[in-house]
Structure formats: C-alpha cells, structure tokens
Amino acid sequence: MKPYRFPIQTISHILKQKINSVPITVYGYIKTVRSQKQMTFIEINDGSSSTGLQSIIDSTKLPTIKLSTGCTVRLQGTMVSSPNRKQSVELVVDKLELLGDAIDYPLHKGRIPIETLRDHQHLRSRSNLFGAIWRIRNTLVSSIHAFFQSQEFTHVHPPILTTSDCEGGGESFEVVGGNTFFGKNVYMSVSSQLHLEVLTHALSRVYALNPAFRAEPSDSTRHLAEFWMVEAEMAYLTNLDSLLDFIEAQIRFSIQSILNTSLQDLEFCDGFVQPGLLDMLQGLVENPFGRMTYTKAIELLSLKKEWHYPVQWGLPLQTEHEKYLAEEIQHGPLFITDYPTVVKPFYMKQNHNKTTVACTDLIFPKWGEVVGGSVREDRLDILKENIHYHKLSREEYRWYVDVRRYGSVPMSGYGLGLERLLGICTGIGNIRDLVPFPRVHGSCRY
Amino acid sequence: MKPYRFPIQTISHILKQKINSVPITVYGYIKTVRSQKQMTFIEINDGSSSTGLQSIIDSTKLPTIKLSTGCTVRLQGTMVSSPNRKQSVELVVDKLELLGDAIDYPLHKGRIPIETLRDHQHLRSRSNLFGAIWRIRNTLVSSIHAFFQSQEFTHVHPPILTTSDCEGGGESFEVVGGNTFFGKNVYMSVSSQLHLEVLTHALSRVYALNPAFRAEPSDSTRHLAEFWMVEAEMAYLTNLDSLLDFIEAQIRFSIQSILNTSLQDLEFCDGFVQPGLLDMLQGLVENPFGRMTYTKAIELLSLKKEWHYPVQWGLPLQTEHEKYLAEEIQHGPLFITDYPTVVKPFYMKQNHNKTTVACTDLIFPKWGEVVGGSVREDRLDILKENIHYHKLSREEYRWYVDVRRYGSVPMSGYGLGLERLLGICTGIGNIRDLVPFPRVHGSCRY
Of the candidates B160, B138, B121, B113, which has an alpha carbon nearest to the alpha carbon of residue B50? Predict the structure, then answer.
C-alpha cells in the first residue's frame, strides 16, 4: 500500500523544509499587509504554525481589489533566505490569487483582548492565541491516547444518553420526549464511570475521552455545562498509592509530550499569557506531586481563620480551601486523600476505619480540583449498604450492582477534566477559552 | 522522566513473553474449569487477548468454594511450555485466590447466540466475541487518530449541544429546559460539520471523533439513536476526485492497521462471524474503490425493474438501491458522486451544470452508505440563495454564513459512521453489537 500524502503543503511544513528553487504553492489567510511603492509584504498563516509565512510581492502584480487582514489567498512563488532578522526564510511571490475577500473584517490586526475575541467565537480561532491553544489541545489529546495505549488500555465509547445519574444530585440535562422515544426518561451523562466499571470487568483496563454535561447554574470561570473528561478504570489496582502513581504518570506524560511537540506554542503562551509557564511545566515533569490526607488538610486549614466556608472534619473542601492548599502550602499539584465517607459517593471503597474512603482529589493552583478518583467498592454487601446509606434508588443501580454479583473485579479509577488540564498547560485562566464553542449557564452560541 | 510501567501484567503480555522460571502473578476471570481427581485445568482471561491463559493446579490446593465460569481470581505460579497442542505455554499454579465469586452466572460457558448476549449488555463484553469487537474498535479508533495526525490535521472537539440543526429535518433530540438554562432552545448535535467548517477557516485541516444523535424512529439494524462519527474538513481541497482519494486512503489506512495489529481478533471473526472476512479486508486494502456518478447509477438501476422505491433521476437513492449497486454491480465499495442539487443539503457546492452538486456517498455491501461528503459551497451569494432555496432560517445560519463573508476558505469534507466501518471490519451485521451500550428507538438500557 502506497503511503498517502496530502496534496497541499502546510505552512508549518514549508517552514521546516530546506530552501530550494522549486516553485511552491501556499494557501492561507492574511495576517498583515504592508505596502510600499514597489514591494508589498504580506504575512499569511493557515493555522498550522504559531509563526506565519512572510511573503514579498511586486506591488504591480497585486490584484486590483484591496488586500487586507482576513483575506484568503493562494500564493505561488519561491522560498528564499530572508534578509530580515525576524525570519530565516520568506516567499517571493510570482502570482497571488484572492480566494475570499474580507471587507469590514471585524477583528483588526494586532493584539486583541481575549474578552473581545470571546464575542467572536466563530472567528477567534484565526488569532495567534487561539491557534496556539487549539494546537496544544490537539497535542494533549494525542498524548492521552498514546499514554493509555502504551499501558495496554482499551479505548471505549460509553454512552452519552443514559438512564442513571452517576453522582446523584439532579444536575443532569434531560432529553425531551425520552419516554416516548426510548420508553423511559433519559439524561445526558454526567460521568461515564459506572459504564466503564462494567467494561473493566471484561477488558481490565479501559479509558474514555467523552463529553460530559452538568446543568449546574454556575457562572464561575472554571465550569462548563459541556466539557470533556478523560476517565479510566484499572482492574486489580487496589492500592490508593498505586492509583496516585498512575494519575501522576499520566499527567506528566502529557505535559512532557506538549513540551516536546508544541514548544513554539508554549513559548507564545509564556510570552503573552503566563510568564514563567515553561518553567512551571518543566517543574511539573520533574517534581513529585504532593500527597496529603483530608484529615491533615483540615488540620492545616484550621490554623488559618478567615474562611468564607467553614472548615471542619466531615464537611467538603471548597474551592477557596483547595486553592489555598495548592497555592500557599504545596505551591503545586497536591493529592488530597481519604475523605470522610459522608462527603463522597456510594461507589468509593471504605477504608478499614469505616469513616473514610480510599479516594483522592488532585488539586492544582488556580484551578482547584482537576482529577477525582478512588478505589471502587467491589464488595457486593457493602455496595448495597452504601446505596441505602446514600438514599439512592436500588432499582436504578440494579444493573451496576449486578456486575458485582458475578465475578466482582477489584479496581480503581478516576476522571480528569480535559479543559482544566489544558488551562494548566496554556496558562489560560477562563475555561470558556479552552474549548472552541463553550456552553455555559446563560450561553449556547451557534 | 522515568517511563511508567503498569504494575500488573496482562495475559496478552504474558503470552508474548519467553518462558522462564520467575514466579508470576496473573489476574482474570474464569472461562472454563475442568476438574480431574488430581489436577484442575482452569482457563482465565482478562480481556487483553482473544486466547486465554491455560493453567493447571493441584486439586488439593483449590479453595473450598466451587470455582465456576465467571469467577474472578488471582493466580500465582510459573509459566512452563505446554504438553497440550492447543497452546504453547501454560501456567502451573502455586496459589489461587478467589477475588469475586459468581454464583448462578447467567452466561454459561461455550458459545452463546449473539441475540442472547444482547440481553446482557452489562455482561456480554466478557464473551470472546465482544472482547474481539471492542479490541478491534480500539485499534480502529487509534488508526483514525494516527492517520489524521500524519496528515497534519488538528483534532478538535466541536459542541454536542447546539442551536442549529445541520441537516434540517427535525430529527434532533431537544434538551429539557434549554431556554431556561441557556436562554434558547438547545438540541443535541446531528453532525459537527458546520462547526468544523468554521474551525477549518482558521486551522485548515481539522477532524473530530464525536458522538452524534438522531431521533429517527427507525428499527433497522443499521441505525443508532446515538452513534460516533469521524468528520473531517480540508481547506483548499476543492476537487471532488481529491476528496475521494483522501477518503479512500483514510479507510484503507485503518483497515491495514487492523490487519497489522488485530489479526488474531480478525481471525476469530473470520471463523465465527463472517467466513472470508480476512480475504475481503485484504481486498479492500489492495483494490481501488469504484467510482460512479449518480446519473450512471440511475441508468443501471433502471435496467432492473422490481424495486420497492421508485428509481428516477431527481429522487434519492434508497438502501435497496445502494446495496444492489455495491453488492451486485461493484462487488465492493463504490463512491456515488454528483447527486441532484434537490436531494442534497444547502452547503454542498454546485457543479457548473447547476443541476448537480460536487458530492459523494460511499456505499458498501450489506451496509449501504458509510460515508457522505462534498466540496463545500464557499461563494457567499450562492450560499445565501441555497439557504433560501432549501427554505431554511437565515437567522439560524447567520453565524455560519458570517464566516464566508470574511476570507471564505474553499474546502471539502466528509463524515464517516464509525460503527458501520467497524461492522465492515468485523463482519458483525447488527449495529447494536458494535457499540457497548446501544441506544435505539425503544431502548436505552443502563
């Protein structure tokens, strides 16, 4: 089988090539035009690279229509080494063809505040910043698949439409007419975990990268109504520390991949979004994440008095607590482990003390919780007690409990918020800028 | 950074290792138990391989509880070469530990009809057949990412919740309370194409592997209410034949990957599902797909008289027509191109004759349509006329048209039904067996 080769070269590809005198054709949209009497300088990009392609054209060869930022063009010419110190090569254009004009392009050239770009969700991706974010997101997703495949996981697609609500709590979106179409009320998945656990009984190591939905009317910068989650379940891994090791290795692998593959885009973010980003990411790869029990965390939090939400053993940790622990105590990512049973869901495995469960939340500076995971309760009798204790419907979870009846597999697993991890990797602080078309309380555009 | 290594070995990994006398620990569920007076033979699997691990234990070392199909165990012992011709190696067990018993396991050992397994969606994945299907699905998904990454595409996540209906036709599921939560009516995406086109204006080559939803009350074996689609858009590729070349290369790459990586699982499907499967797949890799215009197809179909649906230029092709063309005329995959404008959506590019559009449906034996694609209409004025012609809401598509106003990018793209391609790869004929938890008209279990 002859390897396929796409018939058009990207600008990223062209910039990596050696200069030669072979004529080339390049496509892209105009970032800037600078006209002098004899020569016109045009920078174009096609989204493949954080640096565009500089090109020079004899002003007499230009089309009569005025070229401006946003126009889409085809250029034919020859690559030469550039006299300009800003770039090593440039394109001397023989022929320029206008493919799409851009009269009154709403985004002017030059730097535009991210908040302004947010109002142009369908155009903002042409900016240098969003180009960089989407390329880093691509590398992040690729690295996730590469890691799980290297560890012999099977990628699966658990369902989006579901009849059960993994976390309880009524934060699910419901589908209109579910009862008519499916014969029962149907919701959009808030987590794939329970379905993954079922598949783990068969395939031992499974992971998913699925969208999840929360109808939480939150207007924070850290929540989306629709977001993407990496979720994994691992059979026979029953030791909480081993789970933490795995999560840490997975995140570290992704960050190392981004440092290897997307360095230019990271440098852009380091320059324009978060100074020091590269050093911080290098630190995440090199230094172990912190580990601390919930009980210890409560002790430390109690030393400080001014909290908006109360600090007390048996109450959940709030974002202000999580951020403080990660930012002021650990100065980096921190696994909080062994939360009280009462604040965690029914499927987490009880510790011997019966007051805490073998679980973790991984918290990061600025973001708070990025990962939640636990050893799963595999003992049928205790699982049934937990369902009763959490006042959940036995009928709704019968299928899930049923699996534990037939060759129950001890396992642990976790879920990781993709957009939050991307926020850490890029320095972007508002989750609405980390997915191309954000869906949040009060807004679903296009 | 030290490479991470998962602390537990899979059976697949163990079977590939050289035999040595180092003690090993293996986890899995029991497929069969055969007890003799002195020795007991147990076959276990963990879902990592289509062949299980044969193990032998001194009957006196067995736990008092009765071992049976479905029990989950931990075995410690030593790998030795096997005297049995069925396998080359086997495990001599020193210690057996029961992790999960399986009293009254509802699936008996041995071959179970696929229809019976369908009633046990939460247990069926432990069968040899579904193990093979999910592993092939994993390879298929991996190969899709590998191909698009090799061609410099950016993977993106277009939204599931949307305010627009790509195909028109009212086959969307609506979300309860969209207006309250989002401020407008919100639907579940039937296709990501329009959002991908927007991103193509910035990133040039994008692809997505997203779930899509159709509220079509069809009870066929080829439709799911929730399915997964590979969708790709390619800037500056404006020649229909180039699009066909690309689609063909993408599918061929995936099939070659499965032949390389999942041969044992394919052999299982060849033996138990579709005899001749391997030869057919090898043929797909080696032989070019057929290409035929819609007009030619109508000519050929008109020669045969007994159709349930009428055959006439200007009417859509029905499944019976598609299957006939692929099965009886082409004996393989066939691109049908250049359909009448009237039967295709507004975003497809008009041919010069103005009666047909530059589009294709790729049809396969047994399945009919597996891919639909086209060159996209990039001319603003014609796009607006098309929206009017198809009686669509100008307001609803304003954002999409808006992109074409500012540096419109010529492009083509397509969507491929993942489950249908998996059906071709495995020989499985009912789409409900190609996704772990199928959602169809009348059924949404778990």
Answer: B138
Instruction: For chain A, give the mean pLDDT.
Output: 94
pTM: 0.97
Contact partners, residue B16, CB within 8 Å, separation at least 6: none
In a mutational test of the A interface, the residue from B69, B104, B122, B244 whose CB has the highest number of chain A CBs within 10 Å is B122
Q: Which residue in chain B is spatially nearest to A287 when comparing CA positions?
A: B1
* Closest-CA distance of chain B to residue A38, Å: 25
With contact defined as beta carbons under 8 Å apart, do B190 and B165 qualify? yes
First to last CA, chain A: 41
Among the partner residues B202, B217, B250, nearest to A181 by beta-carbon distance: B217
- Nearest residue of A to residue B199, measured between CA atoms: A125
Number of Cβ pairs closer than 8 Å across A and B? 351
- Determine contact, residues B446/A197, Cβ cutoff 8 Å: no
Which amino acid is it at B212?
Answer: A
Say whether A203 and B125 touch across the interface (CB within 8 A): yes
Instruction: Give the residue from B341, B347, B433 showing the smallest Cα distance to B121.
Output: B433
Nearest chain A alpha carbon to B143? A145
Specify the pLDDT at position B166. Answer: 55
> By C-alpha distance, which of A2, A6, A26, A247 is closest to A147?
A247
Please state, rounded to an integer, the average pLDDT across all residues of chain B: 94
Residue with tokens 């076959």: B43
Other CB atoms within 10 Å distance of the CB of residue A385: 14
Q: What is residue B109's predicted lDDT score, i.e. its pLDDT?
A: 74
- C-alpha to C-alpha distance for A231 and A48, rounded to whole angstroms: 29
Q: Locate tokens 């991103």: which residue? A: B199
Q: What is the pLDDT of residue B64?
A: 74
Hey, what are A27's tokens?
């496509």
Helical pair B240-261 and B263-272, crossing angle rounded to 10 deg? 90
